[in-house]
Amino acid sequence: MGSEVRRFPGQAGLWIEDLQTGWSIAHQADRRFRAASVVKIPMMVACLEAVEGGRIDLSDTLTYRASQWVSGSGVLKGMPSGSVLRVDQLIEWMITRSDNIAANLLMDHLGMESFNRSFKERGLAKTNLSRKMMDFRKRGQGIENYTTAQDMASSLRQIYRREGVSPAVSEKCLLLLAAQEIRDRIPKQLPPGTVVAHKTGLERGVCHDAGIVYTKGGNFLICVLTQRKGPSAPSKKFIARLASLTYHTLN
């Protein structure tokens, strides 16, 4: 494992944990990286907690306008202006399709400060939302969303162990993460049929994946955040390799 990290041509933040024994490996786990779409994991938790608390409802509807279009992943960018969508559909697309417009609509609906307050309440000390997804103007001003491998591991561990979040919220989160359609990182080199509840993140210069892998030999948590210049292929291969090595170690 150490040799893989040393050979990686960039910076990496890593947290791997056996969820049965508590055994873990960490490397630069507290280093802040641009969050990209892995921040949608605690965003999902915050949305579902707000539903439980009665502050929003899954049946609430939001209207997508052409002025809200942004690039990147998702299905909403291909839908017509004026499309009316329910909150539950937006949460699902934000996770399973990594839909950036859906995430931005939810930020507008719940309020960015509500998300940041939820992050702090969950103990995610170095995770923040300071701009919307794909807001290049603010990015150019140095305004960024950040997280760490340790924070992402903490968020996933809480969901998995039903700690700090209700069983109902945890179950919904795990189902959505397991329905993730982007499978070119953690699941890539795992045996067919392996269940992985995870969320990817990809922007120019950063490539991440964070999730829970379910195996006969024991379930494990793996969060890998990477930063490097150039194409993302080496980062994706690196993440896939670490997941495969962990899987075969435990099995």
Please tell me about this protein's structure:
This protein is of the alpha+beta class. The chain has a single domain, classed as DD-peptidase/beta-lactamase superfamily (Beta-lactamase), CATH 3.40.710.10. Helices cover 39% and strands 19% of the residues. It is built from 9 helices and 9 strands. The chain has a 5-stranded antiparallel β-sheet, with helices on both faces. A two-stranded antiparallel ribbon has the order 3-6. A two-stranded antiparallel sheet has the order 4-5. Strand 1 and strand 2 form a beta hairpin.
Summarize the structure.
By secondary structure, the chain is of the alpha+beta class. The chain has nine helices and nine strands.
